[in-house]
Backbone:
């Protein structure tokens, strides 16, 4: 399950993906095993192969040529070493989102101070570990429970706080009195505002998501108040879609992230909900920060 699916559950004007079709299975990135490869298909897949791609929420699926062309084999080096769900997380689109946007937008430098919101999610956790253990930044994270805060501290974050029980502005002032150089934004809203107020000159903000606003009617969405700081502090604020990096960086990401994961610099975590009948509940739980 992934937050981007929320926008596909309504006909959201200007959204980057087409809405789901009523009466047809939902689809998202998944992992599957090939149980039958028809003759002359030309996909290059063989029976027994493990592949990843956009797949329907069903126990079995017949992939047409377009779906086959978009699917990719799972690296054999990872099979039996990492649990398969990790290929949907740190070694999948969430990992590429973190890797690509840090490389192209944040451009971290050792010693800089970075803050990651939604840091216990798949993208946020990958971004935080890369910033701390690969780029050498001081990393602050926020999450929605004390258990998640503890998890962040166990995985390379130098400081972390529970945004539900702490003021973000006060927490950032305490953890980074000199200001923020990099903000990896997964939540938007008031948290983005707090960072704009705390940003150092030439800070970079990676606009990855705005989950705090996804279920809010347009007329009630939070109005960011400190946008003038983008000018006065010469802040770079840039959004992206993970597909922006698929063609350019996919091979590089796959090789480098594999090495980071195997070396333990980036640890692959996952949460599994068993049974397709429970997929809807898992989605709702994720959107609520569970």
Residues:
């Amino acid at each position: 399950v992934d937050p981007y699916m929320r926008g596909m559950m309504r006909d959201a004007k200007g959204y980057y993906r087409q809405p789901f079709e009523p009466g047809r299975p939902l689809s998202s990135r998944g992992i599957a095993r090939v149980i039958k490869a028809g003759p002359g298909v030309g996909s290059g897949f063989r029976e027994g192969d493990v592949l990843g791609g956009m797949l329907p929420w069903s126990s079995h699926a017949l992939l047409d040529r377009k779906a086959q062309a978009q699917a990719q084999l799972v690296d054999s080096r990872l099979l039996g070493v990492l649990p398969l769900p990790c290929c949907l997380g740190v070694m999948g689109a969430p990992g590429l989102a973190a890797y690509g946007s840090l490389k192209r937008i944040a451009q971290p430098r050792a010693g800089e101070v970075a803050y990651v919101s939604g840091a216990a999610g798949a993208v946020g956790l990958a971004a935080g570990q890369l910033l701390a253990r690969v780029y050498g930044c001081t990393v602050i994270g926020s999450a929605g429970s004390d258990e998640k805060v503890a998890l962040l501290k166990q995985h390379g974050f130098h400081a972390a706080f529970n945004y539900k029980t702490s003021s973000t502005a006060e927490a950032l002032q305490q953890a980074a009195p000199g200001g923020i150089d990099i903000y990896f934004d997964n939540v938007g809203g008031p948290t983005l505002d707090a960072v704009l107020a705390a940003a150092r000159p030439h800070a970079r903000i990676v606009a990855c998501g705005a989950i705090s606003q996804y279920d809010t009617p347009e007329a009630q969405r939070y109005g960011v108040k400190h946008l003038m700081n983008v000018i006065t502090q010469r802040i770079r604020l840039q959004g992206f879609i993970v597909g922006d990096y698929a063609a350019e960086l996919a091979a590089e990401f796959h090789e480098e992230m594999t090495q980071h994961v195997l070396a333990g610099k980036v640890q692959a975590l996952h949460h599994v909900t068993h049974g397709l009948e429970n997929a809807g509940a898992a989605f709702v739980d994720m959107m609520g920060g569970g």
Notes: The beta strands are 27-33, 50-56, 72-73, 113-116, 138-143, 159-162, 180-185, 199-207, 236-239.
